Amino acid sequence: MVAGEFLEFLLRENVLRFGDFVLKSGRRSPYFFDLGAVSSGAALDCLGTAYAARISAMTPLPDMLFGPAYKGIPIAVATSVALARDHGINLDIAFDRKEAKEHGEGGRLVGGPVDGRRTLIVDDVVTDGKAKVDAYRLLRDAGAEVAGVLVALDRRERVDGDETGMQSLARRLGVPVLSIVTLDDLVAYLQHDGGKPESLETILRYRSLYCVS
Q1: Which of 17, 54, 129, 203 is the most exposed place for a label (fewest CB within 10 A)?
Q2: Per-residue confidence (pLDDT) for residue 26, from 0 to 100
Q3: For residue 97, what are the CA distances in angstroms to 7, 120, 135?
Q4: How far apart are CA 109 and CA 106, in angstroms?
Q5: Catalytic site residues?
Q6: What is the Cα–Cα distance from 101 to 15, expressed in whole angstroms?
Q7: Is 181 helix (H, G, I), strand (E, B) or coil?
Q8: Cα gap 43→143, rounded to integer Å
Q9: Distance CA 168, CA 71 (A)
Q10: What is the pLDDT of residue 149?
Q11: Model confidence pLDDT, tens digit, residues 41-73
Q12: Angle, to 10 degrees, between the axis of helix 3-12 and the axis of helix 183-191?
């Protein structure tokens, strides 16, 4: 799935919306991204297909996928199914509980064993990176080798000088932090779609103020 097709999917499913939104940071943004809007079987199939296509091109491949609770869980499941079906790549998945379970199997991790395995974290976006750092530490404490982080969208927002949030996270963790599409891909898509000139204008203004292009 190429960038334009993935962006069309995000728009069709209302994952990507244009308007006036207040982000977690308090900043006002002309667009909002919420993978939680993907809720049907067909939509999850498309989502998993996009993640799987990106992962299948990685060298070396990870041994398993980890989806941080909560949005990362359906991403990991849909991606593992698509990898097996479309690429013949059969990976285990794991995810975490918000709180450790003290009965039954116990612990915070659910799914395949991560000890000694190259594990790729799959999630929606990187904001301040805290959730990804927490996932990284949880996996390392369980004996995993973290292969990297893959998200759907790189907002390209500046967090420290000319460093983006994803670049900062990659530096802190010492692993690749990748995305399927970037804000620049969205700008290019809108530049070829005459139906959204107002959205393009506000996003270009936002990018010049807050983002690394």
Answers
A1: 17
A2: 85
A3: 30, 17, 11
A4: 8
A5: 101, 103
A6: 32
A7: strand
A8: 34
A9: 22
A10: 98
A11: 999 999 999 999 999 999 999 999 999 999 999
A12: 90
Residue 57 CA neighbour count, 13 Å, CB half: 10
Q: 164, 172, 81: which is closest to 126 by C-alpha?
A: 164
DSSP type of residue 194: T
Determine the number of helices (DSSP H) and then strands (DSSP E) in the chain: 7, 10
Which residues contact residue 180 at a Cβ distance below 8 angstroms, ignoring those fewer than 6 apart?
3, 6, 50, 51, 54, 150, 151, 152, 153
Tokens 């999850």 — which residue?
Answer: 44
3-state secondary structure of 26: coil
Q: Give the model's pLDDT for residue 162.
A: 84
Confirm if 211 and 158 have CB atoms less than 8 A apart.
yes
Token pair recorded at residue 162 = 């000319």
User: How far apart (Å, rounded) are the C-alpha atoms in residues 176 and 149?
Assistant: 6
E strand residue ranges, the chain: 16-22, 28-33, 64-67, 92-101, 107-111, 118-122, 145-154, 158-160, 163-164, 177-182
Question: What is the bridge-based pairing of β-strands 158-160 and 177-182?
Answer: unpaired
Place of tokens 């809108």: 190
Which tops the pLDDT comparison, 107 or 191? 191
Q: Is 187:207 a contact under the CB 8 Å cutoff? A: yes
What 3-state class would DSSP assign to 114? coil
